Amino acid sequence: LFSVGTKIATDHRSRLGADKFEQFQILKHMWQDSIVDRAASNSSTTQEVSLEEFKELLSLHKDLVEWDQSEDKNCKMVTA
Fold this sequence. Notes:
The protein is mainly alpha-helical.
């Protein structure tokens, strides 16, 4: 149970205190088989994406940014 404690008991994490450290170790032992490694599962599956699908969104985004900037200019002119 506590053989992996050296991974947790680093200088950076040593401020946990004995009670919290023990609780953390117990939780880690209880959850070790149920925690999913998302990084490993995501890297094992890849999805091909076509950038053509996003060109329209990019164009729309640029239009909205221009509109927003023009609205800001109009508001500044009105309040000045």
